[in-house]
Amino acid sequence: MTSQSSDPHAASDVPSRAPSAIAVDDEVLPFEIDSLDLRGRMVRLGPALDDILTKHDYPAPVGKLLGEAIALTALLGSALKFQGRFLLQTQTDGPVSFMVVDFKSPDQIRAYARFDKARLAEGLSSGALLGNGHLAMTIDQGAHMSRYQGLVALHGGSLEEAAHEYFLRSEQIPTRVRLAVGEEWRGEEGGPKHRWRAGGMLLQFLPQSTERARQADLHPGDAPEGTAPHVVAEDDAWVEGQSLIATVEDLELLDPDLSGERLVYRLFHERGVRVFSPQSVRAQCSCSREAVAAMLASFEPADRTDMVKDGQVEVTCEFCSSVYRFTPQEAGVEDQAPGAP
Ligand SMILES: [Zn+2]
């Protein structure tokens, strides 16, 4: 499946498992097409995605949209080269008003969404579910490193489009992303069982010469009428890469009987494609009693006092629904004067 290569670090990238015939879920598979200066990642999510979406019992349109955000975050977060966090957040005026996906390296992912049930309808596109607002991607490398945040405006477009714009504006890397989320019914004892699946692919053009990575500017937006758009001829290699990834069908991204290796080979074999060691992804919240206590300690005393209900302070983690209970003393609530309300 891999092309022969004289790349010196190829030897250190010996796959940790033999190429699989069928999809291996909850894994990210990096790949390269050297002859076109393309790098990519392919993600397949099964149990990890199903765990997050099923525990929250999201309505299907919310599950599908949050699933896309989770697949996108797995593609981007798994590329972190250091211990850190990759956060994707949307804040918009559509039926799904808020989403957050938190990837903690090397492999933990968690997510939740807020939505208005009354405004949900079957068949709404991702863009219509999101509406207008913004998408933020934050890379946090820990206490001693700077935090990087990139923002993209959302105007009824999809998460795929937002990702293209993010990379164009923030990193000037020509990028294409494909995302698909599906529901699967599998026959099991006691009746068919519902499961969520997702698949995604990221393709980036990274030539040695940055000149080759130049792209046409974004739509001029509010520029005066008649302003000529800035035309830049795209590099042939990137034109070919885009046309190849554009042929990927949602069904192929989701197919449990088609491995990532086979799909990547199907798309790029004529140009020679190498795959690297897959990275696993798991649904795991990173909340803890200590972290919640530290958060409480950062609140104003009056706010902590307001949180006391029935003689205790109760905090529910929005990611995993874990409930943490503290006595007023543990939560740092000052003793109230006798007779105080
Ligand atoms: Zn949690």
UniProtKB/TrEMBL annotation:
Answer yes or no on keyword ATP-binding: no
Tell me, what is an example of a GO biological process annotation in this record? Answer: protein refolding
Q: Which InterPro entries does its entry note?
A: Heat_shock_Hsp33, Heat_shock_Hsp33_C, Heat_shock_Hsp33_N, Hsp33_helix_hairpin_bin_dom_sf
The question of whether Cytoplasm is a record keyword is answered with: yes
Cellular-component GO terms for this entry: cytoplasm
Q: Name one Pfam family in it.
A: HSP33
GO molecular function terms here? protein folding chaperone; unfolded protein binding
Q: Which UniProt keywords apply?
A: Chaperone, Cytoplasm, Disulfide bond, Redox-active center, Zinc
Q: What is this protein called?
A: Molecular chaperone Hsp33
